[in-house]
Amino acid sequence: STGGVGGAGGGVPPSGSFPLAHLSKFLCALLAICCMCFLGFADNVLDLRWRDKLWLPLCASLPLLVVYAVDGGGTTVIVPPLPLLTKLLGPSLPLGPLYYLFMACLAIFCTNAINILAGVNGLEVGQSIVIALTVVANNLIQVWRWPEGPLHDNNLFSLYLMLPFVGCSAALMQHNWFPARVFVGDTYCYFAGMTFAVAGILGHNAKTLLLFFVPQVVNFVYSVPQLFRLVPCPRHRMPGYDAATDRLVPSTVDFNLGELRAPGRLVVRACRALRFGVVRIDPATQQVTMSNMTIINLALHACGPMREDRLTLALLGVQAACSALALLVRYQLAYLFYDVVK
Amino acid sequence: STGGVGGAGGGVPPSGSFPLAHLSKFLCALLAICCMCFLGFADNVLDLRWRDKLWLPLCASLPLLVVYAVDGGGTTVIVPPLPLLTKLLGPSLPLGPLYYLFMACLAIFCTNAINILAGVNGLEVGQSIVIALTVVANNLIQVWRWPEGPLHDNNLFSLYLMLPFVGCSAALMQHNWFPARVFVGDTYCYFAGMTFAVAGILGHNAKTLLLFFVPQVVNFVYSVPQLFRLVPCPRHRMPGYDAATDRLVPSTVDFNLGELRAPGRLVVRACRALRFGVVRIDPATQQVTMSNMTIINLALHACGPMREDRLTLALLGVQAACSALALLVRYQLAYLFYDVVK
Asked: Transmembrane stretches, by residue range (chains A, B) (predicted)?
């Protein structure tokens, strides 16, 4: 089993015939990215509802999944070689349609992930560049290790998407770095997210891609109580600005503990017990002042107030460290999830 | 020579292989249409410049042309059998790259054509439905005449695009008919125009499609003096509304004949001599009051003030008559442009 990596298709076409499979991959990549740019722009202008932001990327990812299937993509994952797990599930698990569900969810997640970890000058573009460079590094390693065959071609395809993306993001970065003269809005975030999803899915690197999104995954999981309204969530959760010191400080949300249902109260108490962000509860009135649940506010809580560009650099440093770790996991611990390190 | 109609590809695939050529056609159709929806929405929000409205459809049509080429599209047109012409050019003319230029221009023209003949309740959607039904009629005739082969498949492909388009346009029409509660903006106009261009190009009916746009072509040619600023052009040229009689009247533009260059003065004098629209020139001051150069204002000038829905019906009647004539030309006079009536 190839564990979803590799698969047939994408190779050198029989001489004389046009490489239609290759053309289809480029066309559906452009289609998905174009749809998400449109969605992002519409969201900027019209402030779409949350549910629309979920099913629209799903629709846009359908052509991707069709082309992945036609391209002979694998849907089997390796069960980690732990005694209980392999006894229960066998050495490998043919996920079939569930693997397509995973890829659709990946497209939805990527599209929104960068948009959630946002609101600081240079952060959206910066994290996109770090992730893109990590994908490029991974592709180059694979292209170097597999001088021919579908793995070679799939990683080349991913490179063809990622290199121009790095170029235009670097150009945008010049204007978006603190103090920003250009702001990215949802359009760039959705564009970047879908570009990663496309490169991951059509490059047959979907699982590896998720490894490069660890800070975004952590941020999403940490945000879940606010996103699903267990805890009140303001429209924007970006850090506050302290004009006196020219530093950013954690932004907070105020509410009464009595208004929350049991799961919300549990979240607030857990955050206070773990010192996870600012949590102040007035014992008399049960009035809560709590920092908004993003890793941006968490970084400001942990390291103290920072100037905006220092904060961006700190978060990008975390992203880069996670990327280095992810590549290490991918090539040193991969036997847990892949039968051979490919 | 097949005169650009027909061509190879799109047929039943060899058993066991996936019809990638067919998938590519659908993907690039969706890509072009999605790009133009995006452009239309951006134009509504940002009021794009004219030059951007020209090169963006050009970019969006490039994938179409690639797929047309891969699909084995013909690029040869038949020279009308007039003695001088055939002596000069031979019986048929292999246009090669020029035919691709024609198709790119067709995409640009279609995208903007419906947007120019607009501004009256129900007119944009109504003309789109009339054109779409004409395309459907043409496709059905072709599918019926050619029970198999590429001509059959290409016209079926066009039907697959046109039938859902007619459905959603009819639904929109209910809300856009006088008195309109929903307005279409540039988004629908660009969407409709590109859908026609895609159906025409990938259905290998590009030249026939142009026959169905005769009112739009006439409107465009009549508009050229204003579009290219030979004569002053206000931002909107839709008819004026006379509240006292509840009728629409031609909208006018005022300027001094002395401000114009020679070509502009020639246009004004020609319109007055031919009684083409309202043209009043004060002999003493050379001050001109001239109706805006659209066939909408021309219809109001010719038939007198009308209520908005009557005007739409009149213009749609003209469109339908032109469509009937176009189908007649296509199947009775086609020997002028096609070697066999296919």
From this structure: 20-42, 54-78, 98-118, 125-144, 156-173, 185-203, 209-228, 311-333
Rounded CA-CA distance B192/B126 in Å is: 11
What ipTM was reported for this prediction?
0.86
Tokens in use for A98? 């569930």
Q: What is the DSSP letter of B242?
A: E
Q: Which residues of A touch B37 (CB under 8 A)?
A: 38
Using the structure block, give the residue that is written with the tokens 């170029």.
A167
Q: Which of A24, A38, A41 sits opposite B27 (nearest CB)?
A: A24
Tens digit of pLDDT for each residue in A302-327? 999 999 999 999 999 999 999 999 99
Rg, Å, chain A Cα set: 22
DSSP code string of B283-322 = TTT-EEEEE-SSHHHHHHHHH--B-HHHHHHHHHHHHHHH
Cis preceding-peptide flag for A179 (omega within 30 of 0): yes
Question: B188, B40 in Cβ contact below 8 A?
Answer: yes
CB atoms within 10 A of CB B257: 16
Quick check: pTM over 0.90? no
Mutate to test the interface with A, among B34, B61, B68 (most CBs of A within 10 A): B34
pLDDT at residue A91 tops 70: yes
**pLDDT tier at A13 (50, 70, 90 boundaries)?**
very low
Over range A183-212, report the average pLDDT. 94
Element (H, E) at B257: none
For residue B40, give every residue at least 6 positions away whose Cβ sits within 8 Å of its Cβ, in sequence order, or none. Answer: B185, B186, B187, B188, B189, B190, B191
Q: Which DSSP string do the residues of B123-142 spell out, in sequence order? A: HHHHHHHHHHHHHHHHHHHH
- pLDDT tens sequence across B272-316: 999 889 999 999 999 999 999 999 999 999 999 999 999 999 999
Nearest Cα of chain B lies from the Cα of A261 at a distance, in angstroms, of 42
Helices (H) and strands (E) in chain B, counts: 12, 7
> Nearest-CA distance from A77 to chain B in Å?
25
